Amino acid sequence: MIDTHCHLDFLSDPHEALLDAQAAGIHRVVVPSVEVSNFSRVRALATANPQVYYCLGLHPCVVLGSAEDDLRRLKEELAVSLADPKFLGVGEIGLDHYLPGLDRMAMEQVFHAQLRLARDFDLPVVLHVRRAQDLVLKGLRRFGIQHGIAHAFNGSHSQAQAFLKQGFHLGFGGTLTYSGSRQIRRLAVDLPLESIVLETDSPDIAPSWLSRGESNTPKQIRGIAGVLAELRGVPISEIEAVTSRAAAAALSRLPAEAL
């Protein structure tokens, strides 16, 4: 199984988290970066651990001003990383219209600049999208981006269909495990299973069974898969197989042997 979105470098003990994940049958973990300062950390984790892969990008919630130097650094790092078999794409990038006080204009400029880089380097993207689904879709269409993952998807059914039409897969994680997440649960049942990938967003978005203070780590993917299997009325083995193939389709640089 594959955790398609985990901030492993923000966990207190990444090595222990990886051992626990492997014991639970999660053999691949994708770690997106969020800013220039952690580019080297995510790359180092991937280099040191066979089951870890990484993406490079600038998260919308850390965008400051025009971020010209950060974008220059990102372009340089993307060019260098193309030869690295552990490198998968551009991410975590996107738009966040949920948190107050963020510079939306600067955020959109940086997002578009990163979409341009993804297009120029022919790379998939891992998207952060909160209350900005339509604007993100507009950007994807403008720059012709047709591969990647809309992480922690929380849009409407019609927006989900629009992302699928654009060639994207949708990430589902801890939110799916709460009975009150009715819209997300409906989407997880109604959408084609091959359009869904699983994620933890560790250490964030903990599943319902973790108590306050417990760490959310990649091993929780198995429980999330179990909830999805129950909701759809299919064996967990089918969820494992189909979502793993979906991850490889979304992140085309993920090698076949990773499955």
Give the N-to-C terminal Cα separation. 8 Å
The CATH architecture comes to Alpha-Beta Barrel
Quaternary structure of the protein? single chain
CATH class membership: Alpha Beta
CATH fourth-tier homologous superfamily: Metal-dependent hydrolases
* Beta-strand fraction estimate: 15-25%
Helix content: 40-55%
The biggest sheet, with number of strands, parallel, antiparallel or mixed sense and barrel status, is: 8 strands, parallel
The Cα radius of gyration reads 17 Å
Written overview of the protein:
The protein has 259 residues and is of the alpha/beta class. It has one domain (2-258): TIM Barrel, CATH 3.20.20. Helices cover 42% and strands 15% of the residues. The chain contains nine helices and eight strands. It has an eight-stranded parallel beta sheet with strand order 1-2-3-4-5-6-7-8. Helix 1 links the parallel strand 1 (2-3) and strand 2. The longest helix has 18 residues, at 104-121. The termini are close together.
Search tags:
eight-stranded parallel sheet, TIM Barrel, alpha/beta, 259 residues, single chain
Layout: helices, strands, pairs:
Elements: E1 2-3, H1 14-23, E2 28-32, H2 39-48, E3 52-56, H3 68-81, E4 87-96, H4 104-121, E5 125-130, H5 133-143, E6 148-151, H6 157-165, E7 168-172, H7 182-190, E8 196-198, H8 221-232, H9 236-250
Parallel strand pairs: 1-2, 2-3, 3-4, 4-5, 5-6, 6-7, 7-8
Helix pairs in contact: 3-4, 8-9
Summarize the structure.
With 259 residues, this protein is of the alpha/beta class. It has helices at 14-23, 39-48, 68-81, 104-121, 133-143, 157-165, 182-190, 221-232, 236-250; strands at residues 2-3, 28-32, 52-56, 87-96, 125-130, 148-151, 168-172, 196-198.
